[in-house]
Amino acid sequence: MATDPEQPSLSSIEKVGKSSSEIGGAEEPLLNGGTSSENYSVLAAILPFLFPALGGLLYGYDIGATSCATISIESSTTSGISWYNLNSVEVGLITSGSLYGALIGSVLAFNIADFLGRRRELILAALLYLVGAFVTALAPDLVIMVIGRFIFGIGIGLAMHAAPMYIAETAPSKIRGQLISLKEFFIVLGMVAGYGIGSLLVDTVAGWRYMYGASTPLAVVMGIGMWWLPPSPRWILLCAIQGKGNMQDLKETAVRCLCRLRGEAIGDTAPTQVEEILSELTFVGEEKEASLGEMFRGKCLKALTIGAGLVLFQQITGQPSVLYYAASIFQSAGFSAASDATRVSILLGFFKLIMTGTAVLAVDRLGRRPLLLGGVSGMIISLFLLGSYYLFLDNAPVVAVVALLLYVGCYQLSFGPIGWLMISEVFPLRLRGRGLSIAVLVNFGANALVTFAFSPLKALLGAGVLFYAFGVIAVLSLVFIFFIIPETKGLTLEEIEAKCL
């Protein structure tokens, strides 16, 4: 070849320098190539999204099914087991076992993600989902059941780490936001499915076994689908510029993968797109091996602040706690049919689906920042309304119902989908695996902390003061979003690294 593929051409560097100094330009592409040459077929983009998104669906299903499974397990008449008389700690191990497994999965992802690649990490996650579901469903005693929950949770940690990376790295820039946000839709869809299937089986003898066993076919489909899909072309090119294989062979492999991912619409532009990505990766310094120290300085520190900050605020603004009160709020409002917690959960689940679908449609049109700023503002109003209800307005339950629905809707417009979207976009490629694993670890760790601390804090402060405290934290998160979070709408991943970090 006439030029070294590991080095950007002079014209490429000149174009980058020019556009880097013109960041204020609305439409000027930052790097050579921009997004104009990203020809793609929407039909071809479906499967590279669908199979990774099944990891999110299984995560959501586990949340919904477990809420019903614990009722089934503790029943003396329908549990089908002799060890149904569980204490609160044992029930807590069942419900939180997958969460602590997810924490371990996030730690494992930090060390193995870049070695395995996104595709193989998702295949491993599907295998752990399958084994965990089988062990849980067939468990002869509590110890084996908790082990099964833990194994399933490791699969959750790996899947929630690798799925947004694979989707982000393979999706066309113009619809990347929609596809990653749609993964959140799949999580909520899984919750609704878990609540629905659980409510149908809760009165069946040993129904909890069927609830957990029902996730195995999807785990198989996910594993087979990821085995069939190609690796991420960007991950292949990262290996190429870091000298982890023959450059020409890896470039040809990346071209073939890109053609499979984009469909016939890509025509003969795949080699050009691969060269553009290579030039951009080289320009932003991706050819250097990542070190642990780099995670906490320079561009990656800024990306870590953005990503970990978002998912931290996602959890500590009260999302698990507000939903905890859903049944009692509806009951106090006189909705007798909704007094059953499962029916309330299904009702809220469908509402969450609608609002998440709205976010999916809007995220690549309006952008990330407007949805975050508007959604979190609505959450602040709802949290102060909930606090006021429990302190002063207990004779006006309609206030609590409106506040609850406002909170759920605004969360699903903002933190719910966009938190996962941003952490998949902002990390530099060679640090993306480790950076995203830290963000996922923060997410699950904060979730576990809030879940654990909620009851003691409620007893100490009371529900009203606690919701006010969540409201203050939400105000802080709004300030964080306004000053720290960049707009990434329409930018390629390489443009995001060069322009926003």
TrEMBL record:
Membrane-spanning segments: 40-61, 91-110, 122-140, 146-168, 180-198, 210-229, 344-363, 370-392, 398-423, 435-454, 460-485
Presence of the UniProt keyword tRNA processing in the record: no
Compartment(s): Membrane
A Pfam family the protein falls into: Sugar_tr
Membrane topology qualifier: Multi-pass membrane protein
Domain Major facilitator superfamily (MFS) profile span(s) in chain numbering: 48-489
GO molecular function, one term: D-glucose transmembrane transporter activity
PROSITE patterns for the chain: MFS, SUGAR_TRANSPORT_1, SUGAR_TRANSPORT_2
Stated name of the protein: Major facilitator superfamily (MFS) profile domain-containing protein
Source species of the chain: Manihot esculenta
Source organism phylogeny: Eukaryota, Viridiplantae, Streptophyta, Embryophyta, Tracheophyta
